[in-house]
Amino acid sequence: MNPDHIDIGLARYSDWAFTSSVVVLVVALLLLAVELAYSRGRRVEHRELVATGTGMGTGTNTVADAPGRVLDTPKRPVDERIGRSGLALVYVGIAMLGVCILLRGFATMRVPWGNMYEFINLTCFCGLVAAAIMLRRPQYRALWAFVLVPVLILLTVSGRWLYANAAPVMPALQSYWLPIHVSVVSLGSGVFLVAGVASILFLAKMSPLGALDREGRLAGILQRLPDAQTLDRIAYRATIFAFPVFGFGVIFGAIWAEEAWGRYWGWDPKETVAFIAWVIYAAYLHARSTAGWRDRKAAWINVAGFVAMVFNLFFINLVTTGLHSYAGVG
Questions:
Q1: What is the secondary structure of 56-89 as a DSSP string?
Q2: Are 168 and 110 in contact (CB under 8 A)?
């Protein structure tokens, strides 16, 4: 097939899959937010029921405690069932976004990350897959509401203001380095998104809320999240993975730059801010292993790296001019 040929039908199906993904993820966010707002802090575990030997109502679900004795187990509360439904929709939304990316690739017969619209979609997909892996435990489900907020903001901006019709990439991007460099950067950026959200929530859990939250609503929501140490551990593990991946992406970009522009590094705005973000994350990993910096100070550094990533993604590509401006990708 001619690489310049565009399958309009597949491109249209890709757009429909993108819209469906956003709608499904919005509904999932609403359901998860309902569970987060109305869950009643269920702390009584089944082993406590066995220890006391008392039943819980007249539910039909039972479990054997000892020969000749059966204990009732409580039915799942409505808010928990709503949250489980929301999580199921998250997985459906991730699959639809993956279908969107695949169909765009088949429609254009190239890797589907040749412009800013496609790059953001790939980055969000990588972030969602990373979150699905790291937050697979049921007790982490509450974190999904906070992960979906930045993802939906990115997807909204991508579909509303950065959308580009399916088309071949310009000659400057027709290189075997395009699928390598951009995919690696997208993967690192997506995982950094999960790390940034976890660090922000860690700082919220560690902050005094009395003066700012007199009615205790925010404190009540934060109590339903995993403890601060768990959030810190999630942020650290995500950064540990994303840091070398993003670093390789920067290196691959430098090699591509030497082939395309005749130099490895030219302090282009995109290159400069990407390097700054990488240095910030290096500082976070160093601070995380240094006594006296492991808690709030290290988390603030991680949040600064997250801000630098978002700044590099939007401001550099959309406002400043440089050698990366024509491409619309990192």
A1: -TT-S-EEEEETTEEEE-PPPPHHHHHHHHHHHH
A2: yes
